[in-house]
Amino acid sequence: MEFCDDEFSDDDLTNFEAHGATLPANPDTQGYVEHKGAQIWYATYGSGSPVILLHGGFGHSGNWSYQLPDLFTAGHRVIFIDSRGHGRSTRDDRPYSYELMASDVLAVMDTLHLERAALVGWSDGACIALILADQAPFRVAGAFFFGCNMDPSGLKQINERNPLLHRCLGRHAMDYAQLSPTPDQFNEFAHAVRIMMNTQPNYTSQDLARVSVPVAIVQAEHDEFIKDEHAEYLARTIPNAKLIILKGVSHFVPLQRPHIFNAAMLAFITEVLPDRPSMRGAVTL
């Protein structure tokens, strides 16, 4: 299955670098959950069948700002979570792990009394989503897994000179300084996250075969980080998973060409949450 679109674009991320991406200032609910030595920030918009958006490494929930209007208009309750140590959330001195951050998501779900939700994950957020699908399948309606590996062999050798990476990381550093309770510690934070990225996760084919919820493995045609063959392997190995290729875009498509990403995301969510309510008005960003 393929999705492509020629609408709004920020292919070189110059708009993102200059202005960032933020959520509306008026969520229906927001707050912090105390969990395992950290305060985990969350915000929700809308009502109806719940969709949780899990952002990538070094980023924060605002990076999903282009996805919120379409999800809200489709009648979903949209839940954003700043991962442990990212954005507004704090961390203690324990090492990062995807399993720990997955447990943070469950803590937020418990606080919001969400029995079950669809999960949309981007990069590190995708890994968190699939771990939840494995470890707590009764809480996960489906996992939209975009741009991530489930063992270190899935990573490409990164081109450190890629200007997109510099623009994105520079924006993340600025956002961290504005949002984090430890605004002067971005370098220490990034070092700790990179250790996790370079050594985790380590799912085997047997681990992947346990996953019982609907999963979409979503790969950008020009992803800078994830090997195409790894995405194909995940789609083959996870029972009943489907492979979706986003044509002509990169790892940053939710920011670069949101209409391409959103079309694929909404099609999947419609399948796993068929009982969503009627359409709603749009969110103003």
Automatic annotation (TrEMBL):
The UniProt record lists the keyword Cell membrane: no
Pfam families: Abhydrolase_6
Superkingdom, natural source: Bacteria
Keywords: Hydrolase
UniProt GO molecular function: hydrolase activity
InterPro entries: AB_hydrolase (IPR050471), AB_hydrolase_1 (IPR000073), AB_hydrolase_fold (IPR029058)
Residue ranges occupied by any AB hydrolase-1 domain in the UniProt entry: 51-264
Protein name: Alpha/beta hydrolase
Organism: Tunturiibacter psychrotolerans
